[in-house]
Amino acid sequence: MSLNSRTLEPLGFAYQLEELEPAAGFASRLAALNGQSLKSLLRDMSIRQRNLDLGLAATVSDIALLGRADPVRLLRYTPVRKTDKLYEVAGETFMRLTVNRTYFRYCPRCTLEDMGQYDGPVRSRPWLRLQWTISHFRSCPRHDVFLTQANPARTPFAPFDFSSTMENLFPTLRQTADQAVTVAASPFQAWIQDRLCGNGLSDNWLDDLPLYVAAPFCEALGVSSLHPPKVRVARFAASDWAQAADEGFRIASAGEASLNELLERLNRGQASTRGVWGPRDTYGYAYGLLQKTVDDPAYAKLRDAVRRFALETMPIEPGTDVLGQPAGKRKVHTVRTAARDSGMHALSIRRLFKRMGVDEASDHSGVMDHRILVTSDDFSHVVAELKDALTAPEVERLLGVPRIHLKELVAHGHLDGLAGTGSRRNAKRRFSKVEVERLRERLFDGAQEVSEPTERQVDITDARRAATCTIPDILDMIINGKLAWKGRLAGRHDYMALLLDADEVTRLVRSDGMRTNLTKAEAEGFLPGTHERVVSRLIDAGYLTLVEEFSPDARRMIPVVSRDSAEAFKSRFVSLGELCQKTGMHHKKVRLILRVAGIEAALDPGVVGAFFYSRDLIDQAEGQSQSMWTYEKSALQRKSRSLSGQSQGGSSVSHTQ
């Protein structure tokens, strides 16, 4: 089977198959060389148009024989239908609607170059690139312009006639080429081109996926990245799809970490929204693609990656279908879900989240309850505990404990509040029923059952009054095993049924150790020459430190002066009063001796209320003169006047100069 030699030879036809050209385009140019339409050529050569449209191997071989081309190569770049939804081209698979069999896009500048490069009839010179028939290609990588769409006359179940269609476009081809919109080179298209040529990239996360999966996912992922979740893609122009494809390819080709980074950004975009938070409304068009292809095992890698991230970062209800699989145990809580599962008020849960370090839970964050997240691992045990927890009034009724005693039990760690509520002042505390019962066991541990208690076998409140001690004191005795005897009223197990020996409690209270620090009155005696007003001023000035210490006499914590600070002050300073006591002289005489010796007050008397001198200077002066404290009135006064005159003279000279 061959074309008429009279037609071919005058044209010098020795046809070389161009790269990536399908059989239909090749057959169309053969017809143009022979001055025929594609339909006429196929009819004359007894080739069924439908077979060429389907890319049957025998038909493609016949076309290759007509044009003296390599049938294997021509078949490789001809779309061949594999299933109802898939076509195979160059060893790659594409979706049926991805292979354009009723129209094509073309580059007018490539067409002009073909017309100037090849011989033969003008309509036979342009050749159809495979890329022009695949919808993922939207620009020409050679000229960096968007492709122009052509809509050829279509015969049902037959391939379009490429050469005939181009012939109709020749009159405006130059103008179309000049008006072509420029665009940057597309990494997405270059990757598909490499795949078609068999040049896969080993470091590309998408290379182990078939093209009919990877290419649409790149486009869908780019739509989700660049547009709102409910964008109408039906209104997209080719430029919108091209931009989305390159953006999606940039993200997906870098791997799962890059994909997760995008999904996290989309999650953050939901922070100010209302309503139920679901993956479809968050991840948009890309998630919709994965939903539509949930039965296709080729999408498993992508579905698993998105599903895994969604379950780990979104408050998805258990049992919810997530890309074909029901969600299991909740991995993320919001304030709303935690409040519902635990039975607590949402505001209490929000404040609990804030204590757990969730910044969005602060009152002024602007983030609503159903958008504040905490991982389930951090909170699931809290929710489980809070679900059956007891409030403080319920604990009072169950344990029979007065409220003031319950507060002390919590404050001193004998009963822990759930979720960190026990140690907070005025908190709405929740308690585990198990912990309450454990506390009851500790209270009555070793208690003897008593039917008729004696006069001195009393309950906790009466024992505390008898010993004049604090509630923490008596609780410490009971729980830490300091009592030799405890009793329990027969038939009762409430807090007030616990019996104590009032005499034993009193004896233990009075045997407590003495204080180690000083009251203000004791500080006056410890620092000779001072009085209460001076001690207070020294405290205010920071020379003495005020601390709290339990007083066995007062049976409470009282403010006292730290003995360490008092000893440190006494080692540094000596008061005028102490020097008067030491020397037995009037304070005016002592001050005169110190003035003559050149020793001035180390602290401002106006601040501390008394004269204090450096103890080291006093000791040094006493070591240098054995008769330092000998008072000779006339001699000391002369020296004092002399020192005063020198001081005034120095000031006068300084003023004159």
Spell out the blueprint of helices and strands.
Blueprint: H1 5-8, H2 23-33, H3 38-44, H4 49-54, H5 57-66, H6 71-76, E1 80-81, E2 86-89, E3 92-95, E4 104-106, H7 108-117, E5 139-140, E6 145-146, E7 148-150, H8 162-169, H9 173-178, H10 187-196, H11 211-226, H12 238-253, H13 256-268, H14 279-283, H15 285-292, H16 300-313, E8 321-322, E9 325-326, E10 332-334, H17 335-342, H18 346-355, E11 373-375, H19 376-387, E12 390-391, H20 392-399, H21 403-411, E13 430-431, H22 433-444, E14 448-450, E15 457-458, H23 460-467, H24 471-479, E16 486-489, E17 498-501, H25 502-510, H26 520-526, H27 532-541, E18 546-551, E19 556-561, H28 563-572, E20 573-575, H29 576-583, H30 587-596, H31 605-608, E21 612-614, H32 615-624, H33 633-656
Helix pairs in contact: 2-3, 2-5, 11-12, 11-15, 13-16, 17-18, 17-19, 23-25, 26-27, 30-33
Describe the structure.
48% of the residues lie in helices and 10% in strands. The strands form nine sheets. Strands 14-16-17-15 form a four-stranded mixed sheet. It has a three-stranded antiparallel sheet with strand order 1-2-3. Strands 4-7 form a two-stranded antiparallel sheet. Helix 2 (23-33) runs parallel beside helix 5 (57-66). Residues 1-18 and 650-657 have low confidence and may be disordered. It is built from 33 helices and 21 strands. It is α+β, with helices and mostly antiparallel strands and 657 residues long. The chain is elongated. Strand 2 (86-89) and strand 3 (92-95) form a beta hairpin.
